[in-house]
Every structure is written in structure tokens, then in C-alpha cells.
Amino acid sequence: MLLQPLHEPAADKAGVRLLLLRDDLNHPELPGNKWRKLKYNLQEARRLGHDTLLTFGGAYSNHLAAVAAAGRLTGLRTIGIVRGEELGSRPLNPTLTQARADGMALRFLDRATYRRKQEPDVEAALLQETGPAYVLPEGGSNILALPGCAELVAELADVTEFDTLCVACGTGGTLAGLLTGLAGQREALGFAALKGADFLRTDIDALTQQAGGRSYANWFLHTAYHGGGYARLSSELRRFIQGFEHRHGVLLDPIYTSKMMVGILDLLNRGYFRRGSTVVAIHTGGLQAWAGFGGSGA
Asked: Which family does it belong to (predicted)?
């Protein structure tokens, strides 16, 4: 586990120790929260005798890419249900091209049906077409995703004292896992990567309730740092990423961690964190997404 101090003027002025947890380095091919969320799901798929994983995501989904890579590494077949119609003869984007290269069979689902993907009749129809499979939800956020993410808390506590954990949120599973690991102690902050993400508060609470039968009060979801919406990379955000890499030698991904860091620095400037506290920002990986934005920010 690599913890990198971030010497930012906003943190120094606020009297806060700011650290970056390089969880993007935790696995050579499934880095960051994707490996943590898949770890126990892969074990369960094997235990149930499945040889196929079926999951869901958008055209630039880090989750689809991760499941495809996991299938290649473990010998499991993978099927990706992609939101939206296939673009005829146009080539696939880099994310889906890599997923297919890793052996994932891609099926495209119109957006109206995709919104109903969790309904039993829609799932049953998909499985009738594809054959039996272990079904992973979009983003991999289910009950079995939580313990893998919760392990991060114990690993971190072994190497440093900290007061606040910060993480970017897409579906909320990683934050829910961190909450179960924190068990009501310290503070956790989530930074939504998509617009209109207030619903995530309910989803996160539901996940922790299902996992441990309790809700937690030691967390908050910030929804103002989405940067224009999911997978939107403004020129301002790109410049921020370039500046961060220049200062710290770390490339942030364009969808999640970059928006989290914008939010953390803004909160530091606003005096949000207690002076003398330690704030840990989690780099959850996702760098493969740069292929869809014309290369890295630098």
C-alpha cells in the first residue's frame, strides 16, 4: 500500500495532512476498486458452478473493461450488456475494443430496456438468450462487493492514523464498502461523478443495510463536483489533471478521481476539514478511460 503525501497550498493553509492512497497500483491488470469489488464475486461465481459472468455498463465503462480482464485472467466467459444501440459499421471505442479483445461478448440494449435491466423479466429474457451466467450489476455494486472494499480500511489503519476517507462514486458500492469497514468510526466522503446523483444516498444506505443490517451517519455525498456529468471532460478539468500530474507525478483518471480531487481542494479552501486532521483521498484507478479521450491529460 502506497500513501503519497500531497503538498497542496490549500491543505497547508488549512493545516490538514493530505494523503493519496495509490490503490490504482494494487493489481497489475485489475487496479483499484474494480479488483476489490470483483474479488468475492468471482469466488461466489466459482462456488455456484458458473463458468460465465454477465454484467452491464455504458460504452466507456471501467467496470465492463475490468470484468472482461477478470474473465481472461480466471478463464471465465464474460458477456457485457452495453447501454445503447450498436453504431452500425462504426468501430468500437477503445474501452469496448479492449473488452472484446479480452474475450467479452458484447450485446447492445436499447436505453429504454436498459433502464429496466434489474427487473426480473428483463434479466430472465437476457439469460434465456445467453445461457446460464453469474449476474453482476452495473458497476459491480452488490453485497459481495462490500467486503473487498471494506478490507481497504483495515489495510490503511495498519499504516497510518486518519480522520477522513474520500472516494469518487459512480454506483456507490465502494463507498458502501468503506462504510462497513469504518463501522461508524471516522468520516467518509463520497464525490459523485454524475449529475443528479442524489439517489445514490438511498442506494448506499440500502447496500449497508443489506450487508450488515445497519445505516451509518459518519458520511456525506457531495454532488456538486460532477464536472458537467458522467464521462464529460471539460477543458478546465483537463487542465486541472495536467497541473496535478505536473505537481505530484500522478495521473488521475478523467471520470472519477479527478473530480474527487477538485472537490477535496475546494473543500480545503472552504475550511471544511478540521485543522490538524488527516484526509486520505483514494485513487481508484480507471486510467484505461483515457483511451476514449484521446490520450492522457499530460
From this structure: Belongs to the ACC deaminase/D-cysteine desulfhydrase family.
State whether 58 and 188 are in the same domain. Answer: no
H runs (alpha helix) in 226-291: 235-248, 257-269
Q: How many domains does the chain have?
A: 2
- Domain boundary, last residue among 107, 140, 173: 140
Q: What is the pLDDT of residue 296?
A: 63
Contact between 64 and 170 (Cβ < 8 Å) = no
Structure confidence at residue 182 (pLDDT): 97
Count CB neighbours of 213 within 10 A. Answer: 7
Q: What is the pLDDT of residues 76-93, one digit of tens each?
A: 999 999 998 876 667 888
Q: If you ran DSSP here, which 8-state letter would residue 162 be given?
A: -
Give yes or no: residues 201 and 69 share one domain: no
- Top-confidence residue, 34 or 189: 189
Query: Mean pLDDT of all residues in the chain?
Result: 93
The answer as to whether 60 is a domain residue is yes
- Alpha-carbon gap, residue 244 to 248, rounded angstroms: 6
